[in-house]
Amino acid sequence: MLSPQEYLEQILRDLTANAPIQSPLRTARGTVLAEDVRTPIPLPIFDNSAMDGYALRLADLTGTTLPVAGESAAGSATATLPPGCAMKVMTGAPIPIGADCVVPYEATDRGTVSVTISERPTLGAHIRRQGEDLQIGDVVAPRGAVLTPRHMAAIAAVGIGEVVAHATPMRVSVVSTGAELRQPGEDLTDGAIYESNSLMLAELVRGLRAEAETSSVTDDPELLLEHLTRQATHSDLIITTGGVSAGDYDVVKAALAPLGIWFGPVAMQPGKPQGFGRLNGTPILCLPGNPVSAYVSFVLFVRPALRKLMGHPDPVGHPIRARLAHEMTSPAGKTQFLRGAYADGIVSQVRGPGSHLIGALAAANALVEIPAEATILAAGTDVNVWLMETD
Ligand SMILES: Nc1nc2c(c(=O)[nH]1)N[C@H]1C(S)=C(S)[C@@H](COP(=O)(O)OP(=O)(O)OC[C@H]3O[C@@H](n4cnc5c(N)ncnc54)[C@H](O)[C@@H]3O)O[C@H]1N2
Ligand code: MOO
Question: What's the pTM value of the predicted model, to 2 decimals?
Answer without folding.
Answer: 0.89
